[in-house]
Amino acid sequence: MKSIYILFAVLFSTPLAFFGAPEIVKSPNGNVEVNFSVENGVPFYSVNFKGKPAVLKSRLGLELAKLPSLMDGFSLDKSERSSFYETWKPVWGETAEIQNHYNEALFTLSQKSPARKMLLRFRVYDDGVGFRYEFPKQPALNFITVKDEHTQFAMPGDITAFWIPADNGTQEYEYVKSKLSEIRKIMPAATNKTDWASPVGPTSVQTSLQLITNDGIYMNIHEAALVDYSCMHLKLDDKNMVFESELVADPTGNKCYLVADAKTPWRTIILGDKAVDMLSSNLILNLNEPCKIADTSWIKPVKYVGVWWEMITGKSAWSYTSEKALPLTKEAYAKAKPHGRHGATTENVKRYIDFAAKHGFDQVLVEGWNIGWEDWANKEKENVFDFVTPYPDFNLPVLLEYAKSKGVRLMMHHETAGQVRNYERHLDKALQFMKENGYNSIKGGYVGYIIPWGESHYGQYMNNHYLYVVKKAAENKIMVNAHEAVRPTGLCRTYPNLIGNESARGTEYQAFGGSRPEHVTILPFTRLQGGPMDYTPGIFNMDISSFNPRNKSKVLSTICNQLALYVTLYSPLQMAADFPEHYEKHMDAFQFIKDVAVDWDDSRYIDAEPGKFIIAARKAKGSENWFAGCVVNSEGRDTELKLDFLSPGKTYAATIYSDAPHADFEKNPHAYKIEKRDVKSSDTLKIRCARGGGWAISFFPKP
After folding, report:
1. Rounded distance, CA 235 to CA 550, Å?
2. Residue 2 pLDDT class (50, 70, 90 cuts)
């Protein structure tokens, strides 16, 4: 249910071709100001925040293939103004309700030869701006091939950025903090060597891009409602400090194909005085359309365990046999010789089901259950998986019945290996298979090169595919968690069965050499701006060589840092990713993972600084229980937590999980201490965080 209150409708609509002054659009509280003008036929905009420049005068427009451009020759025909306010209730989220309040300006631009119109719609919020291009149906502009989009974001000087390289194949990078002028020099060392990585250029970066101006303005550039369009990277002109949109191309070099009446995604700019303003913004969600699923009762946040970390660390294997290129039939695998390291066996999965049932987890993810894993990744072949045929040692009927008897579901895994045509051919059958066997959620995957050949992970073709899968899944009441897909842009508001994505460097990289502690203090400012991440936290054994001597990687975190991630990295989909036996050695600390919620009525970002630390507190959905968490970088930190978010007059039983005095993410990552005490809203807690450490606290009201 949602309630909508329209404050006032169109204020004025008048021809403006003869007006020379810029059009000014302010946010409801006046802090954000957009200036729009058409000068010598070219549209420009700029953005100020509290009287300070955030985006300097920047050009707008699109270059078309086979048609004259939409870059110049414009006059401003009409300006329509309105204001809008609503509160809406997300199906799941960080808060029970979200306010959506903006002032809007719709500018109609026209060209004389050929006679065409282009609309620019700006929505100005108290915490930022969203704008997009719109193309009404018209005789001279019905079929639109976008060669390039030239949206600019002119920066107010050589400011600080938290960035990853633009890449058309992966987003799985560690973030770099630098001045804009340093990006070109740093870029070669920052580029990933993943097989299917496809870096774009020496100064091109991905969104969501977190920035801090020299005036102390926190600014984030991203996009919202990425539908039927290519993903936007940003190319920096590092002489003039101007970013320009850089759309992902298809094999022909074109960027998008549109049919009027059409519109682009929103280009978003979030603004604030403090770092926490970035984390609490709902601007990107608000720019997406309301939920299109009539009955959402089947969409539920999930806390899960699974047969996954075994394979990621190399202790177990996805494949059943070492034989390559077997025919995709049960009979062929029944005759094959198993290698003995397969992780998704009936008995091993039962072990995870038992653990999930004992400790109150909803689901058990099983990867490597289906035939085809012997020869799958980065191959130029199309038919590897059929998504329905289990390996000989994975007894699906037995496991489904066993899980049901324990009150647990199995979570389906669909790794496509980038073979998109193959997946779409099998999708209806695979979803029917899921329904018949009681599955209600998919973890999808797109590892490797995309087939059809030449398409990339983030072009228009693939973005349409990802949404196609989400819609088909919704028809079958199935939730989707897509890995290696395009980074989120708030579409989970419209399709809340899109319950999570990976689309960034997750925990798995801790088994591939590690990720620095700074990484998890930056992700909420960047990747999580568009939607939640399936980060798969909860690792308790940081020495991977202790159970797999072939892998010398270390998890660069303390146990308390891992606990805090369940609060600081918001997601309605949270995994306890480690092995049951590793948790059983630390059941006192594991209690926090059991207790912490995955859906919330309220969220407070107490204090934060990207690359340094994050402190957050959240109130569990439908209860008075609160949970708080703090993660810090590799320097450690003394922190302070005022408990004024708790209800006044109530006493809470607090359990504080913190780093032991000599804890250290490199030297002593498993050291922690647990303290229990009664607290009130007037109290303040002071807690020391180790290097790469953190703390987590549960607050339960006392009778």
Report:
1. 40
2. very low
Residues 414 and 441 in one domain: yes
Query: Is 222 found in the same domain as 150?
Result: yes
Q: Is 400 helix (H, G, I), strand (E, B) or coil?
A: helix
Among the options 223, 244, 508, 518, which is catalytic? 508
> Are 43 and 187 within one domain?
yes
| Contact indicator for 140, 125 with CB cutoff of 8 Å | no
With b for 16 or more beta-carbon neighbours within 10 A and e for fewer, the 493-512 pattern comes to bbbbbbbbbbbbbbbbbbbe
Query: In 10 A of CB 456, how many CB atoms?
Result: 22
- Annotated active-site residue 323? The verdict is no
Residues 398 and 454 in one domain: yes
Two structure tokens written together for 8: 């006032």
In the chain, the amino acid numbered 97 is E
Distant-in-sequence, close-in-space partners of 335: CB < 8 Å, separation ≥ 6: none
- Clarify whether residues 481 and 612 are in a common domain: no
217 and 80 in one domain?
Answer: yes
pLDDT at residue 16 is higher than 60: no
Calculate the CA dihedral of residues 482, 484, 486, 492 and round it to 10 degrees.
20
Say yes or no to pLDDT of 463 above 80: yes
Structure tokens at 644: 């004024």
pLDDT digits (tens, 9 = 90+) for 598-614: 999 999 999 999 999 99
Q: pLDDT band at 17, cuts 50/70/90?
A: very low
Residues 11 and 110 in one domain: yes
- 143 shares a domain with 94: yes
DSSP label at residue 664: B
Distance from C-alpha of 640 to C-alpha of 652, rounded to nearest angstrom: 18
What is the total count of domains within the chain? 3
Give the number of other Cβ atoms within 10 Å of residue 10's Cβ. 11
Closest by CA to 30, choosing from 106, 102, 82, 98, is 102
pTM passes above 0.90? yes
| Beta-bridge partner residues of 4 | 86
Domain of residue 689 covers 516-535+543-570+597-703
> Residue 12: is its pLDDT beyond 50?
no
Cα 331 from chain centroid? 40
Task: Please state, in angstroms and rounded to a whole number, the distance separating the CA atoms of residues 377 and 384.
Answer: 9
Q: Are 413 and 344 in contact (CB under 8 A)?
A: no
Confidence class of residue 99 from pLDDT cuts 50, 70 and 90? very high
3-state secondary structure 62-131: EEECCCCCECCCEEEEEEEEEEEEEEECCCCCCCCCEEEEEEEEEEEEEECCCCEEEEEEEEEECCEEEE
Q: CA-to-CA distance for 376 and 363, rounded, in angstroms?
A: 26
C-alpha distance across the termini of the chain, in Å: 32
Taking 50 as the threshold, does the pLDDT of residue 1 lie above it? no
pLDDT band, residue 20 (cuts 50/70/90): low
